[in-house]
Specification:
alpha/beta, Nucleotidyltransferase, domain 5, five-stranded mixed beta sheet, globular
């Protein structure tokens, strides 16, 4: 099973989208922040969804930086260190998901964000 995730930043605040098995989940107006924080929030939400569904899962996103941090290849600094610690705690509670990076045009969650009104 694949769960696509993507975070974004608009003037109204951060947002993210998740897509799995044709179902789309979107959260908007998550408050001020950065696009990187929005990507982390998307990854955390995708991980929670994966744990709720159970079974092996591939989390698919287009943020090379967040995926590298989640994999432990690059240190997460500042606020992102807390996101990384939260992600580590989540994945420790179940079978670890596989992380896969794709181009933006291949990310179904990114496409869902692009199709929201006001884009």
């Amino acid at each position: 099973m694949k769960i696509f995730f993507d975070g974004g930043l608009r003037p109204a605040g951060m947002e993210y989208a998740l897509v799995c098995r044709g179902e789309r989940r979107v959260r908007q107006d998550l408050g001020p922040g950065t696009s990187m924080t929005a990507e982390w929030l998307a990854l955390l939400a995708a991980t929670r969804w994966a744990l709720a569904l159970g079974g092996p899962v591939v989390l698919v996103g287009d943020s090379a930086a967040v995926i590298a941090q989640a994999r432990g290849l690059v240190p997460a600094r500042g606020d992102h260190a807390a996101h990384w610690a939260e992600w580590q705690a989540l994945v420790a509670s179940g079978p670890p998901p596989t992380l896969r990076q794709v181009k933006r045009a291949q990310n179904l969650a990114g496409i869902a964000l692009d199709r929201l009104p006001g884009r």
